[in-house]
Design a protein that fits this description.
The chain is α+β, with helices and mostly antiparallel strands and 372 residues long. 34% of the residues lie in helices and 17% in strands. It folds into four domains: 2-43, no CATH class; 54-105, no CATH class; 136-288, Nucleotidyltransferase, domain 5 (2-Layer Sandwich); 309-368, no CATH class. The protein has twelve helices and 14 strands.
């Protein structure tokens, strides 16, 4: 009280008053503000109990966090806090860093050594960026694994890149181009066609013919879908591989093939409708994905100028010219290709508007494939 009265009198500087009473200026002004707000009662000692409710309820929040972490072992602090907000509302939630500290103290976070892969600089290809649903679909075959009874299983996975919505997670039998094509036809009718299909350089998506096309990837192109092949140091499929990692950590290995397929369907439903994703603002893929169903594009035979040579490729990928027999690629079996004259015994080979390579009958007598 004497300190406050001396400050209110204003007879001497505040610094001198604080030196005489042995307190700091911050403390002096604090008691002055309390006196002006509450009078003499404001100078009494205040309770040191935390004013925020969530600090008083920290043990309860910690117990909830650890229980949720054990249920969702691959979720981080941000997703766990999102789930708390969904279950208990936005009031009195602990901060994200607090949630992270709790799960680290409980030993539920495994620290990994940083890994840097050295990639040689390559010429980067221009790839499309997904800005809405059905812009880019990524497709791949997940690495095989065994069920408990020894059955080998290798699921085909297809996902919309922008929304992270998983469209297909089932194994194929047999694992060939026709099976993947049937799955794609089913998905195209249900969800609509994507603008781009992105895949790796493995069977049945990539072949050894012109532009790496197989019957499957050529069918995509004829439907008007751009095909992007994953290339190290350029176009990548990291988001799809990250989804495979989540599947590996969360999927339970079943006893039989039938039970494993049912487990894949349940995991796909959980991934699409229950698991939030930071890349789309902690929304679920199902809430972000918008399908655009419609009829499939009608395939027509390409037409060529009248002065070109037109040859139908045999099923084994071979075409015949007078005194010459050569391979164009099995992907074009049963389809007509056009040969545009490019000099003496030289032809530029096209399928519709797609340039396949240069054919020189006088020298190499082989199709010189373009660099892509």
């Amino acid at each position: 009280m004497e300190l406050v009265q001396a400050m209110l009198a204003g007879g001497e500087p505040v610094v001198a008053i604080c030196r005489r009473f042995g307190v700091s200026r911050q403390t002096a002004y604090k008691f002055l503000a309390r006196f002006r707000a509450d009078g003499g009662a404001g100078l009494r000692d205040h309770s040191r109990v935390p004013a925020r409710a969530h600090a008083r309820q920290a043990p309860r929040w910690r117990e909830r966090i650890l229980r949720l972490r054990k249920m969702h072992s691959t979720w981080g602090a941000r997703k766990l806090r999102w789930l708390l907000r969904k279950c208990f509302g936005p009031r009195c939630l602990p901060a994200e860093r607090t949630v992270q500290r709790w799960i680290e103290q409980a030993g539920l976070v495994r620290r990994l050594r940083p890994f840097r892969r050295r990639v040689r600089p390559t010429r980067r290809r221009r790839s499309m960026i997904a800005r809405r649903s059905n812009d880019i679909w990524t497709i791949d075959l997940k690495g095989w694994f065994f069920t408990h009874n020894g059955t080998k299983i290798e699921p085909l996975t297809i996902r919309d890149l922008w929304s992270r919505f998983v469209l297909w997670t089932k194994p194929l039998a047999p694992k060939d181009e026709k099976s993947v094509r049937r799955v794609c036809q089913r998905l195209f009718r249900r969800y609509g066609q994507p603008r781009v299909m992105r895949c790796d350089r493995g069977a049945p998506f990539f072949g050894d013919g012109p532009h790496g096309l197989t019957r499957l990837s050529l069918w995509w192109r004829r439907l008007g879908i751009r095909v992007e092949f994953v290339r190290r140091g350029s176009i990548n499929n990291n988001a799809h591989e990250q989804m495979h990692g989540v599947m590996k950590n969360e999927l339970v290995i079943a006893d039989t093939l039938r039970a494993q397929v049912q487990g894949l369907v349940r995991w796909c439903r959980y991934y699409n409708y229950d698991r939030p994703h930071e890349a789309i603002g902690l929304r679920t893929p199902a809430s972000a994905y918008r399908p655009h169903p419609g009829p499939l594009h009608v395939l027509t035979q390409p037409r060529y100028p009248h002065h070109w040579l037109v040859r139908v490729v045999r099923e084994n990928g071979v075409i015949y010219l007078p005194g010459w027999r050569g391979s164009i690629g099995r992907a074009f079996g049963g389809l007509p290709v056009g040969l545009a004259p490019a000099g003496r015994q030289r032809y530029r080979v096209y399928f519709a508007s797609l340039y396949l390579g240069l054919l020189d009958l006088g020298r190499s007598r082989k199709l010189v494939l373009p660099v892509f």
